[in-house]
Amino acid sequence: SNFGVISLFDLRFLMCAKRWQHPCQTDLHAMTPFDDVIPSDTSGNCRVLISAGGHETAVWNVFEGKCEQIFRNLDENATSYASGPVACEKAKATLRSPTLRDLQMDNASGIRVVLPLPNGGFLTAGSDKFMRFWHPHRYEYSYCMCGPSRKDLSSYYYSKKIYNGISVVEEEARNPDVASGKQKGSNACHEDCILDLALIDSQDRIILSCSRDGIVKGWK
After folding, report:
1. Diameter of the chain by CA atoms?
2. What is the pLDDT of residue 62?
3. What is the pLDDT of residues 65-100, one digit of tens each?
4. Residue 126's closest CA among 139, 140, 107, 103?
5. pLDDT at 174
6. Are the CB atoms for 36 and 57 separated by under 8 Å?
7. Among candidates 171, 159, 175, 126, which has minimal Cα distance to 27?
8. What superkingdom does the record give (predicted)?
């Protein structure tokens, strides 16, 4: 919902089996099933990817209402994080109703779409016009797929940290003097917020992206 409430429905009995509130208590911009299974896990696939709290995407166990892993990227033009990940905070069992101020807040910035891929990774995109690939188990394989032409994509790298016992993959920015400068953002990148992604399951594995200005692009 627009204030972070997640509901798990049992369609056999047409009833809500569980409900909790995301720690961000604001818009959940994207949610999709996630088929990746954590090694040594025996609980089966009961996970979703949820984008909320600005530039964070997290793996949530829907049966337990618990965050298991977080992926977050830097805010536009930022070189560091002001605080720890929002999803690391405990989910709210007691739901808070939104205030008028909550409903009037502009939550347009951040990740707007999440697309799981057959290889176990996933793509994210949003207001900063970047498309990023994230690898759940090999964080060093995560990378910026494309971005605004003024950005030096080689200046970004990914590290793993632990917050409150939760694994967090964070995007980091090198000093501009250290970056190679060889991998610049593409002029073919979107010029407005990216709102949706789709995988065309063909031999070429084409990714489609669309932005708020109505532009649709295909990527190989």
Report:
1. 60
2. 87
3. 889 999 999 887 777 776 778 777 776 565 566 555
4. 107
5. 80
6. no
7. 126
8. Eukaryota
pLDDT of the residue at 41: 57
pLDDT number for residue 179: 43
For residue 160, what are the β-bridge partners? 169
- Under DSSP, the state recorded for 92 is B
Q: Are strands 166-173 and 66-72 parallel, antiparallel or unpaired?
A: parallel
Nearest Cα residue to 48 out of 57, 40, 132: 57
pTM of the model: 0.83
106: closest CA among 127, 78, 131, 81? 127
Spatial separation of the C-alpha atoms in residues 110 and 51, rounded to whole Å: 8
Return the bridge partners of 219, or none: 207
Residue 89 has φ and ψ, to the nearest 5°, of -70, 160
d(CA 40, CA 134): 21
Residue ranges in the chain whose pLDDT is less than 50: 177-181
Pairing mode, if any, of strands 122-126 and 111-116?
antiparallel
d(CA 10, CA 18): 9
| Number of other residues whose CB lies within 10 A of the CB of residue 126 | 26
- C-alpha span between 218 and 89 (Å, rounded): 37
Domain locations in the chain?
A: 5-37+45-219
Closest-CA residue to 188 (of 219, 143, 160, 212): 219
CA angle 41, 112, 58 (to 5 degrees): 20
Q: Are 48 and 33 contacting, i.e. CB atoms less than 8 angstroms apart?
A: yes
185: Cα within 13 Å, side-chain hemisphere: 19
